[in-house]
Amino acid sequence: MVCYTRRPRGCQFGVKNLPATPVSITTPVSINGLDIAWSRPEEVYGGSGTQITYEVTVVQGTLSYTEDTTATTLSLPQGLLFGTSYTVTVLPKTQYGDGRPATLKQVYPVP
Known about the structure:
This protein has strands at 2-7, 10-14, 23-26, 29-30, 33-39, 53-60, 63-69, 73-77, 84-94, 97-98, 102-108. It is mainly beta. The chain has one domain (19-108): Immunoglobulins (Immunoglobulin-like), CATH 2.60.40. Strands 6, 7, 9, 10 and 11 form a 5-stranded antiparallel beta sheet that branches. Strands 3, 4, 5 and 8 form a 4-stranded antiparallel beta sheet that branches. The chain has a two-stranded antiparallel ribbon with strand order 1-2. A hairpin with a 2-residue loop joins β4 (29-30) and β5 (33-39).
């Protein structure tokens, strides 16, 4: 429970809703690497104007790359191994906390 509305006689308490899971992760392969795209969660605590930062992590074997972005796309430079599976995780974050991550696992390059 958090105090989400300050009143002269105290707080109005309630359960805060964290951002929902991002939807529709896609990873089209380009000659320059991997282009990752997703859609903004439909439900975000604080309304549609709430700033969301996405923590995008790509893991392939023992290699890991993480970057934060406010966009709903991210281009990963070359570096993935051909014919090897990789996992992309997109974690939405707001000033109210972290949402649920969305995960996609497939083989690079996508057949």
